[in-house]
Write a structure and sequence with these properties.
The chain has a domain of about 130 residues: Lipocalin, CATH 2.40.128. About 35% of the residues lie in helices and about 30% in strands. The protein is built from five helices and ten strands. A hairpin with a 4-residue loop joins β6 and β7. α2 runs parallel beside α4.
Amino acid sequence: MAVCLCSAKLIAAFFLLSAIPFAYLISLELSPPTTHVLHYHSSGFLRECAKWDAPGRRFLVSFLEGGVGQVLVPDDRSPAVLEEATVVKDADLAGNASLGLAVDGARGRLLVAVADVIGNRYSAVAAYDLSTWKRAFLTQLSGPSKRERERERERLLSELNHFFDADIDISFFFFFFAVAWYVVCIYYIGLIDIIISKKSTHRFIFPCYGKR
């Protein structure tokens, strides 16, 4: 079965088929935008959500790897490419993704939806002060306690070490290569930028910007 999955014809067909969405993404990225676009550099690759904080003149961005960043927008919009700065990195929520955001301007806080996107074993809502970034509260919605999560993480690490010590079928490497290839196809622009400048480039498409 492993030999069949890794045959030369199958690999060649895979590359040919994957070239179609890759070419489409290139055409989309190279085409001029129809709305106002703000580009910014970030230290990560995957950004889940962004909200505009008008009083602070900044975008607040959630990280799929966990945490929240801010992208300050100056009045004169002088930099061609803005910079992202990490403002929240909660150790109690390590291993979970920061997903949806909501700016609660009346209370001066940011609400963050947190979840385990891979195992679907934990979810919570956290609130942080918009000026000091101290956590106001953390409400767990589902999942085990912190001690149980640590025990589960240790068990998974032990199983992973045992897995890599054993013989791995070659089809596993082919599957991993296929997934990695599609990730490169989807995020190739950020990948090229990481190689050149050690940073990832993202952008905001914000039609209403400049009218407020």
